[in-house]
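Exercise 3.2. Students should predict the tertiary structure of the chain below and write it as structure tokens, then compare their answer with the key that follows.

Predict this chain's 3D structure.
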Amino acid sequence: MSDTYTSHFDTYISVLRDAGCRITEQRQRICRYLAETDQHPTPYQVYSDLRSQYPDMNRATVYNTLNTLQSLGAIVEINFGANHTHYDTDPTPHVNLICLRCHAIEDCHEALPTDEILTKTGTACNFTPIAAKIDILGICARCRAQDA
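Answer key:
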């Protein structure tokens, strides 16, 4: 088990517990799934993947848990059009590269100095930033290769 997995899993559980949610087996499974993935899953993907392993998984529990984690800042909602809501399980400041053709989402931590952007924004605007969400829309390398 990686340190990142443990850290994310512990954060999700702690956030839910602090919000007064019971830590049921289903919620633990959802948190484990989110901590293990390096993708940006849709709510349906989370439900479908968990349901294939755990037939007793409840769709409402998945959707409500995702909404709770998102509203508490543990995960970030990425929404770019009808029926294209995804969740980013890494709430630290980074850039999301979103392909408008295949809807792939990739994290890019190197592109922009996001910590510097937060600091400078706070100073320049007398504002205390807590998080940043930077989405760059475009066409990914796979889709561009298909055009060639």
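Discussion points: The mean pLDDT is 89. The beta strands are 76-79, 85-88, 95-99, 105-108, 134-138.
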